[in-house]
Structures are given as C-alpha cells and as structure tokens.
TrEMBL record:
One Pfam family it belongs to: WD40
Keywords for the protein's UniProt record, in alphabetical order: Nucleus, WD repeat
WD repeats: 81-116
GO cellular component terms attached to this protein's record: nucleolus
Major site of localization recorded for this protein: nucleus
Protein name: WDR43 protein
Annotated PANTHER family: WD REPEAT-CONTAINING PROTEIN 43 (PTHR44267:SF1)
Region (Disordered): 29-49
InterPro entries: U3_snoRNA-assoc_WDR, WD40/YVTN_repeat-like_dom_sf, WD40_repeat_dom_sf, WD40_rpt
Protein's GO biological process: maturation of SSU-rRNA from tricistronic rRNA transcript (SSU-rRNA, 5.8S rRNA, LSU-rRNA)
Subcellular localization(s) per the UniProt record: Nucleus
Length: 351
C-alpha cells in the first residue's frame, strides 16, 4: 500500500548461492476449483485468512539447492538438497502444497516432498537445460520447457505431448484457460486447453492448443511485443466467451496489454490493444521527460485494474492503475526523482 520495504532476506554468503527463482506456496491445502458454476465470493475474513497462509516461499539457488523460507517467522524453514547439481531455473508448487517441482540446468526435473525435504522423484526432462515449468489446472500434468516444450503425465512421468516452436530457451509458461472451448466431448483435464510461452530474446509470445487427436506441434497464435518479455501476468479465461487479458512487461520498460478470445488458429501475430509507458515530467534544469522503466505488472482480482511496479529495483514504486484500453498508447507522468535521489544520497554517505 505504501511501497515501503516490509521484510528483507539476505542469504548468508558462505552458506548459499544467489537466488535464481522463487514461488509462493498455495494457501493451506485448498480444494481444487469447483467444476460447477461460478466461484462464490470470499468473505472478508476468509480473504484475510488466505493472506495469512501465503507464507512459505520456495527459492531456487544457483548451486542447485532450494530454500524454503517463512515470511511470517522471517527465517529459513528448511533446505532441499540432493536434487540438482546445477542452477535451479524454475520452482512450482503443486495444489496439494507439500509437493514442489523444480527444474535445472542439469537437464532434470525433480518432484520434492517438502515435509520430509526429500526427493520423491527425479527424471530427465530434456537434452539441454530445462528452464521453465507449469502445472495444469487440475494438477495431473506438468509442462516443462527448455528448447522444446513437453507435457508430462505426473503419475507415469511419461511425455504426453511435444511442442516445438522457440529458437531460444523458454522463460515463461502458463495456462490461459481452465476449461476446453468445445463442450461436446467429456473433459479429461487437459485436452482443449490453451497455454502461453515466452522465450529469451524472442519478441513473439506463442499460444499453444493441447489436442488429443492431431499431433499438431506448432503454435496456434502469437502475440508480438517490442522487446524480450521479462514479466507476464494474465487473467485466465474460465468460460468460452471470456477473453484472456494479458499484461506483458518488456525489457525496454514498456507494458503491453492484450485482450483476445482464444478460438483456434490465427495466422498473423496479434499486436497489443494498449501500450503503457511511464515518464518523468522533466524539471527546470532539464525539461525533457525521461522514461521510467516498468518492472512488473499484475492484474488485480477484479480483472479491470492493474498493479504497476516501476522505478528502480532497489526502491520500486507500486501503484494501482485502472485500465482504459480505449486508447492505444498511454503515457503516465510520474515524478519519481524526489523519492529516489534522497534515498541514494543517504546510501552514499554510509558507504
């Protein structure tokens, strides 16, 4: 609410290596989303309760160990060792929150039991490093990606589908629908779902469609952005007519918003409905506005407004912005110099 630092965790340098990825544990053993009809609105007390439970953070490190950190206690709970012998690239929690998946530069995927801190299962995920993971909405399948994207059956640990598309390693994977678009066949939990992938140095985000009949390996559509995507958030489409909203923050500090109904194949790359940038107003000495990079963005629960994180990473500013996508380009003027220059002066005198 006030963009102040609440909590800082610095791993002791001689014991652990740099943090490479992290993931919040799901709130305490929640039931899977109900299949019938819309979700009931949560009461205020329940929301507060859920916030309390968002406590454990899994942090992957550059040496291959995974740290479980409690934000409530402000200390490490446990350390998962013996799974990877190289940099951990991605960690993902399963819905039944004692199970954690991780992938690494060592080409392997590991399934952890976080209560015993032991490896439940380890298997080779790719011929090169595995860079990204994502768990299917019903929790029975796992997407993994390096250069190619594979869909694994979590029970048998066998590949169910292959997708080939990016020339570089995939940096983000996420499901964009929770129900199939054609309702005439019984749903097996995965067929008919769409998912999205973005890769390093790739200005196209690909959307894939999981089919059981055709061995189609290519993306069904793609979104084009101005630079490599560094942060992606989306609202999941729960019914057929509901468009997926996508917020993509690029390396150049711009934010692109897309809104699209996923309905099969689309040949040409889709461009964004709206691009958001932030700039300083410029002052007497230097009247030219300077761009302020957007670092991350996330949709609020109402799916209508966005949380923007911008400025510099040491002192980010967090702001809630309501979306108006009628304009194709929005430039927000924010004077952030006062806040930042003051802080850096203090820091310099200390040094």
């Amino acid at each position: 609410a006030n963009s102040r630092l609440q909590h800082e965790y610095v791993p002791s340098a001689h014991l652990s290596a740099a943090c490479t990825c992290l993931a919040w544990a799901p709130p305490g053993g929640r039931p899977p989303p109900s299949k019938d009809g819309p979700q009931r609105k949560k009461r205020k007390s329940e929301v507060a309760e859920a916030d309390k439970q968002l406590d454990t953070l899994a942090i992957g490190t550059a040496v291959g160990s995974i740290l479980l950190y409690s934000t409530v206690k402000g200390e490490l709970q446990s350390k998962l060792d013996g799974g990877h012998d190289s940099r951990v690239n991605c960690v993902r929690w399963h819905h039944d929150n004692c199970c954690l998946y991780s992938c690494s530069e060592d080409k392997h995927i590991v399934e952890w039991n976080t209560q015993t801190c032991k490896v439940k299962c380890k298997w080779k995920g790719d011929n090169s490093s595995v860079t990204s993971l994502c768990i299917s909405p019903d929790g029975k399948m796992l997407l993994s990606a390096g250069r190619t994207i594979k869909l694994w059956d979590l029970e048998t640990k066998e590949v169910y589908r292959h997708f080939t598309g990016h020339a570089t390693s995939v940096s983000s994977l996420m499901f964009t629908t929770v129900k199939p678009m054609n309702e005439n066949k019984p749903f097996d939990g995965i067929t008919g779902l769409y998912f999205l992938s973005g890769a390093i140095h790739d200005r196209l985000l690909s959307v894939w469609y999981i089919r059981s009949d055709r061995k189609e390996k290519n993306a069904v559509m793609s979104f084009t952005v101005t630079d490599e995507p560094t942060f992606i958030d989306l609202t999941v489409s729960e019914v057929k007519e509901e468009p997926v909203k996508l917020a993509v923050v690029c390396r150049d500090g711009q934010l692109h918003l897309f809104e699209h109904i996923l309905n099969g194949y689309c040949k040409k790359p889709l461009t964004s409905n709206c691009t958001i940038q932030i700039a300083t107003p410029g002052n007497e000495g230097d009247p030219t506005p300077k761009p302020v990079p957007i670092l991350a963005a996330a949709f609020c629960t109402d799916k209508q407004s966005l949380l923007l994180v911008y400025g510099n990473t040491l002192q980010p500013i967090i702001e809630k912005v309501s979306l108006n996508t009628t304009e194709s380009h929005v430039c927000l003027i924010r004077d952030i110099q006062k806040v930042l220059s003051l802080k850096t002066d203090i820091a310099l005198t200390k040094v």
